[in-house]
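Re: that backbone. Tokens:
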């Protein structure tokens, strides 16, 4: 390559970078795998999950108005996810509103793997829409035409394939958990639980893979263990405020402390490894509510509510064993195991006061 060609390539690369910067198009793991994925989970929560809760209330109370509300909310899952993703990607209004149609198309075409289809296609459509936004004098036509047209075309072309891949992965995990409930109970519980505490969305991962059944029960156990585990382990540092913020909010609040001292994660991880196989092998706990509930843990009590919703939808006669399993796996055992491990690590001088202190 000649010197002039190299200079031309450098100028071209600089022009592309300036264009992407001007359009706020950032191709990065942070933007797509963390920001967009976490936003997608919020969109799911505001549609599919809250709709399921309303449906459960309707089924239990016999008041059909709640079922109607739930149906409306669940039908909007695709648009809600896509708009949430667009908001995370900082889309201008016209692109954001155009994603409503894209989300519906991608979720419908993706079938059981609709959430993953929406994630991929909404990201592509959003960035393409941002690229053309306000670049012409007929922006009111060009921007929605590009966003909706290309987004829906992608939904038709690759949406079913993405959905099938997601469903196949989820089905494999559920099959493996049925085949090896002890080992996979540990693996699924620990992995999904760790994902919940990391700055990514375990709820969106479970939703994207349609993770329900016995594997969903293990995932729920792991997420509860992280949240309840950190709430109990850090009680000396944070008191009852920490119990509420972590036990009903999120264990992600501890990420800064984990980065400074990773050993504080051990009690919650051990609790996940203990409760996962208990959920699968002892109580045969199947989380057959919405898949997003498998990755929510005790956040707003969504995980236990999803578990109950699954019992209702499956027509299970709910008895003492079901309630005992929920109480032990979601609350009692995570608290007990994490407290014992934390106590041992404090006695050994590995964990000290202040290690898990949350910022006020």
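Recovered sequence:
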């Amino acid at each position: 390559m000649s010197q002039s060609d190299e200079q031309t390539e450098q100028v071209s690369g600089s022009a592309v970078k300036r264009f992407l910067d001007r359009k706020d198009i950032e191709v990065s793991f942070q933007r797509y795998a963390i920001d967009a994925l976490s936003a997608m989970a919020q969109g799911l929560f505001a549609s599919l999950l809250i709709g399921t809760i309303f449906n459960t209330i309707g089924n239990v109370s016999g008041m059909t108005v709640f079922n109607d509300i739930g149906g409306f909310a669940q039908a909007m899952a695709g648009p809600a996810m896509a708009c949430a993703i667009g908001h995370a990607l900082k889309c201008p209004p016209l692109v954001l509103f155009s994603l409503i149609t894209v989300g519906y198309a991608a979720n419908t075409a993706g079938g059981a793997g609709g959430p993953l289809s929406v994630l991929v296609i909404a990201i592509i459509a959003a960035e393409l829409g941002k690229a053309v936004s306000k670049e012409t004098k007929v922006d009111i036509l060009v921007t929605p035409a590009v966003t909706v047209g290309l987004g829906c075309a992608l939904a038709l072309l690759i949406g079913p394939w993405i959905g099938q891949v997601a469903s196949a992965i989820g089905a494999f995990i559920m099959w493996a958990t049925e085949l090896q409930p002890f080992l996979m109970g540990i693996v699924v519980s620990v992995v999904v639980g760790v994902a919940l505490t990391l700055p990514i969305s375990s709820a969106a991962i479970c939703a994207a893979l349609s993770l329900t059944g016995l594997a969903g029960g293990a995932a729920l156990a792991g997420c509860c263990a992280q949240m309840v585990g950190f709430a109990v382990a850090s009680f000396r540092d944070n008191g009852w405020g920490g119990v509420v913020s972590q036990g009903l909010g999120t264990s992600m609040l501890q990420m800064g402390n984990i980065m400074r001292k990773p050993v504080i994660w051990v009690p919650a991880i051990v609790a996940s490894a203990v409760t996962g196989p208990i959920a699968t092998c002892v109580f045969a706990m199947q989380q057959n509510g919405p898949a997003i509930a498998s990755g929510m843990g005790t956040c707003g009590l969504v995980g236990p509510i999803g578990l109950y919703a699954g019992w209702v939808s499956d027509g299970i006669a709910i008895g003492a064993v079901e309630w005992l399993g929920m109480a032990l796996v979601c609350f009692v055992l995570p608290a007990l195991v994490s407290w014992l491990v934390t106590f041992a690590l404090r006695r050994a001088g590995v964990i000290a006061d202040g290690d898990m202190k949350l910022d006020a």
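The chain has 16 helices and no strands. Residues 3-164 form one domain.
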